[in-house]
């Protein structure tokens, strides 16, 4: 035994090294995956979540814990995370045959423990599927059926049919999602398969000859794509001990994607391998090349290949109002075997930092933006979770707009306070409008300080871009004045105030605020009327808050103008693009962009309100047509009576005053004081060439005014 163990380890290392290592750097898989996630605008969509794990492969001392404490304890640390998805998946490496003692033959209680942990879907296509022969595979399939667990990848030895895929349905409320699940493996460790029970991936059954996909495999994917909403392929492929996919894996992934696969979940290498988005004729396929081990004892190789590290991989799927289905992206929970290498557990904050960095590298998420917290989830895990702000609970942020509030386009989570400082509250749900180029239409979200445009096919940080509201506001306030685009941000004169520079550097940068387009300006604040120092940027207006002490926080000294609110009140995109104020075009299910009033006449009524009023007026006119002559005669009589009443009242007033009303002439100050000598002079007034104006009635009313004017003239 002392000789056998080193020999086995040496053979394992030689086998791993016998296959060329394909560096992630050469393949681009070491770079952050900035296309994830693709959450869209989130309007009128129902979201589903699939939780995928690596191999369930309990070695002997894990089984010993299960026998002593019960197999359910093996999943105590991860059970809440598995149950927080619509469907949880694993693949089973081995058999469950009673009366047999083997390293990869497990107690049937394992199946019950998996089901109670939340696992509902299993791949049975692995290289260990026939470790206990056809009888062991038959017994395992019967056990899964008895536990109501769905599976694909192998059939009973006496099966008359071999389904190309497993159809299954997920339900959320009134929405349903159909999945076509296909599992296949590179081979069965050269063990014979006399009844062709195990589904094979490649034309060759040899471990070292993985390459050409079987035609039957591609046909199965095509059939599933035609019959279901989403195709998920579980591929047991690749070479042990490698942290990067082999060329054969990547080539096979592209072929499966072209055939119609939407999600590919890899396994076999005993290690994590990277995530990738594949594109084929406008379709997107999400691939994780290996999910490593979910339940196994591989701690002896942790230092060399991180083989005791894995993830629970959450895949998001959205069904839109028009019935279309798409993969939105992924999130993940880093796990590591704990309790003496006997069970998986989330990696806790502040522990195993190097392991966590390795997981994030494989997930192509260096800042942990898509990583789940290690605390058990209180609700269902969402790959595209909405964001409800306490200040605006009636307007939840959805889709990529919610993702932008959480990250502000960065690769690491940002404090929500920063989003409130730079964006403010949302002013309503997303709508579809013209973009800033005034040509293309896309989803838009108005916030207090911005108008956010969703460019769905762009990578982050360019997925969500603010409109150039600073430029628009400057041109409206200073028509004809040239824009001073200050592109040298290192120039001390680029910023009108040192606090503006500090705010720019702390809360954003070029992609968030754009270049400065003016120097410091003094303006009356549009809301308070208080004189304010401002500076315009392409996408913002910086304002110095008055009466703030030097020790005040930077965000209290510098504030962003409410340009999003100002633009919306001015007419939205119609004002931005100089278009007539008409309703914006919206997608099905999206709210209508209500135009601002074109004049004071419509008093803020929407086009729908005006249509209702017009219809009511038309109906009233039609019903009143026979009565028009009588109504006209009655109106004429009322008018004559009113005129007679006014005439009588006027005659009575004249008689009471007993005088004719005349225009009351008031002498000017010149007429009253032009003949007076200067103050302090003994001269008599000079004679006037023009006659003295005749006194008018009520001239005595001027006496008080005369005295006041005399005093003023003396002064």
From TrEMBL:
The protein's name: Capsule synthesis protein CapA domain-containing protein
Keywords of this entry: Membrane, Transmembrane, Transmembrane helix
Annotated Pfam families: PGA_cap
Gene3D superfamilies from the UniProt entry: 3.60.21.10
Keyword Nucleotide-binding among record annotations: no
SMART domains given in the database record: PGA_cap (SM00854)
Chain spans, region Disordered: 674-715
Ranges of residues in domain Capsule synthesis protein CapA: 49-298
Keyword Membrane part of the UniProt annotation: yes
Organism: Candidatus Viridilinea mediisalina
């Amino acid at each position: 035994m002392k000789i056998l163990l080193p020999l086995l380890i040496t053979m394992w290392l030689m086998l791993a090294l016998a296959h060329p290592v394909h560096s992630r750097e050469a393949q681009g898989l070491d770079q952050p995956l900035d296309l994830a996630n693709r959450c869209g605008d989130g309007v009128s969509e129902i979201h589903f979540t699939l939780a995928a794990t690596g191999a369930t492969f309990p070695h002997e001392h894990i089984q010993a814990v299960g026998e002593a404490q019960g197999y359910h304890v093996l999943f105590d640390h991860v059970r809440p995370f598995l149950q927080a998805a619509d469907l949880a998946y694993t693949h089973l490496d081995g058999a469950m045959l009673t009366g047999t003692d083997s390293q990869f033959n497990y107690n049937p209680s394992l199946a019950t423990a998996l089901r109670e942990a939340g696992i509902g879907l299993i791949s049975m296509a692995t290289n260990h599927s026939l470790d206990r022969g056809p009888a062991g595979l038959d017994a395992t399939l019967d056990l899964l059926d008895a536990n109501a667990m769905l599976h694909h990848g192998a059939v009973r030895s006496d099966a008359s049919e071999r389904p190309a895929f497993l159809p299954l349905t997920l339900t959320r409320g009134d929405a349903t999602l159909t999945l076509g699940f296909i599992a296949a493996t590179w081979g069965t460790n050269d063990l014979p398969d006399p009844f062709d029970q195990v589904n094979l991936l490649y034309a060759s059954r040899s471990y070292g000859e993985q390459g050409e996909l079987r035609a039957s495999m591609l046909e199965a994917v095509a059939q599933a794509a035609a019959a279901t909403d989403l195709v998920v392929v579980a591929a047991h492929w690749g070479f042990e001990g490698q942290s990067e996919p082999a060329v054969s894996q990547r080539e096979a992934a592209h072929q499966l994607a072209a055939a119609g696969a939407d999600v590919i979940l890899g396994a076999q290498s005993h290690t994590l391998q990277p995530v990738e988005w594949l594109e084929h004729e406008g379709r997107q396929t999400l691939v994780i090349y290996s999910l490593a081990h979910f339940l196994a004892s591989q701690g002896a190789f942790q230092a060399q290949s991180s083989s005791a590290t894995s993830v629970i991989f959450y895949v998001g799927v959205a069904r839109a109002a028009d019935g279309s289905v798409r993969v939105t992206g992924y999130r993940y929970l880093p796990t590591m075997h704990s309790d003496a290498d006997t069970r998986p557990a989330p990696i806790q904050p502040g522990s195993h930092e190097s392991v966590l960095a390795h997981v994030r590298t494989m997930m192509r998420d260096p800042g942990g933006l898509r990583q789940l917290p290690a605390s058990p989830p209180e609700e269902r895990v969402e790959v595209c979770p909405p964001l409800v702000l306490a200040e605006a609970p009636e307007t939840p942020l959805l889709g990529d707009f919610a993702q932008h509030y959480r990250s502000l386009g960065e690769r690491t989570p940002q404090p929500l306070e920063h989003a409130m400082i730079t964006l403010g509250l949302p002013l309503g749900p997303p709508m579809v409008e013209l973009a800033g180029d005034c040509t293309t239409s896309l989803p838009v979200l108005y916030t207090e300080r911005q108008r956010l445009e969703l460019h769905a096919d762009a990578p982050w940080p360019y997925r969500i871009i603010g409109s150039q509201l600073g430029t628009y506001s400057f041109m409206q306030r200073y028509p004809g004045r040239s824009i001073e685009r200050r592109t040298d941000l290192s120039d001390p004169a680029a910023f009108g105030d040192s606090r503006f520079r500090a705010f720019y550097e702390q809360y954003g940068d070029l992609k968030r605020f754009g270049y400065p387009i003016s120097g410091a300006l003094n303006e009356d604040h549009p809301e308070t009327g208080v004189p304010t120092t401002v500076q315009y940027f392409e996408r913002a207006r910086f304002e110095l808050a008055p009466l703030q002490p030097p020790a005040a926080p930077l965000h209290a000294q510098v504030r962003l103008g409410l340009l999003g609110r100002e633009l919306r009140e001015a007419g939205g995109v119609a004002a931005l693009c100089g278009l007539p104020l008409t309703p914006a075009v919206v997608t099905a299910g999206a709210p209508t962009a209500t135009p601002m009033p074109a004049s004071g006449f419509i008093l803020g009524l929407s086009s729908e309100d005006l249509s209702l009023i017009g219809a009511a007026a038309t109906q009233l006119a039609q019903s009143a047509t026979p009565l028009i002559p009588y109504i006209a005669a009655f109106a004429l009589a009322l008018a004559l009576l009113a005129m007679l009443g006014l005439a009588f009242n006027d005659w009575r007033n004249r008689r009471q005053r007993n005088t004719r009303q005349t225009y009351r002439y008031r002498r000017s100050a010149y007429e009253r004081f032009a003949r007076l000598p200067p103050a302090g002079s003994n001269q008599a007034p000079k004679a006037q060439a023009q006659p003295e104006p005749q006194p008018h009635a009520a001239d005595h009313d001027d006496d008080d005014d005369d005295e006041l004017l005399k005093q003023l003239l003396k002064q």
